[in-house]
Amino acid sequence: MYTYFKSKDELIRATVLEEQNTALAAHNEPCSGSFFDRLCKQVVSCISDVGYSVTHHLWVEIMAESARNPELREAFIASDNIMRQSIAGIIAQGIAAGEFRRDIDPQALTIILFAFIDGLIARKAINPAFSLETDVPAFPDLMSKLLK
Q1: CA 27, CA 89: separation in Å to the nearest integer?
Q2: 53: pLDDT confidence band, cut at 50, 70 and 90?
Q3: Is 15 within 8 Å of 63 (Cβ atoms)?
Q4: Are the C-beta atoms of 27 and 51 separated by less than 8 Å?
Q5: Is 7 a residue whose pLDDT tops 80?
Q6: Is 98 left (phi over 0), alpha (psi -120 to 50) or beta?
Q7: What's the whole-number mean pLDDT along residues 92-96?
């Protein structure tokens, strides 16, 4: 690894950027369904798939290291803002289309959604058998209550 990266911090920043690029590519894929379906698909994908080359365990470690290291924290927050902006765009489109409530603050809602995502990624890291569909079958209903 150190042949390609000068430090652990550089490796973590590269991993966060790769995760960001993978997720943004998924966010930008054409979707023929509703904005609700698109948003749910993105949230479930973030929880279930994380992203190539990141595992659930590694993502929890990256978050922990970013909490301790100011330089990594800055990189993590910058990536988080880009990711949340992408999801906020889907929410704003849903509001504009009349699919979601008009009183929703897309930025505030993305913080809540990413708290769900991060918490459920940690749950999956702790319990590999965890499945959003099996263990939280009401997740689509919860999402609906947030948005509609």
Answers
A1: 10
A2: low
A3: no
A4: no
A5: yes
A6: left
A7: 97
Residue 120's nearest CA partner among 19, 54, 44 is 44
pLDDT at 80 over 60: yes
**pTM for this structure?**
0.86
User: What's the pLDDT score for residue 75?
Assistant: 92
Q: Please name which of 81, 103, 79, 80 lies closest in space to residue 91, comparing C-alpha atoms.
A: 103
What is the secondary structure of 49-89 as a DSSP string?
T-BTTB-HHHHHHHHHHHHH-HHHHHHHHHHHHHHHHHHHH
- Say which amino acid occupies 35: F
Coil vs helix vs strand at 91:
helix
| C-alpha radius of gyration, the chain, whole number | 16
How many angstroms separate the CA atoms of 24 and 9, rounded?
22
Query: What does residue 29 show for φ and ψ, rounded to 5 degrees?
Result: -65, 140
140 contacts 40 by C-beta, under 8 angstroms: yes
Tokens, residue 6 = 């000068």
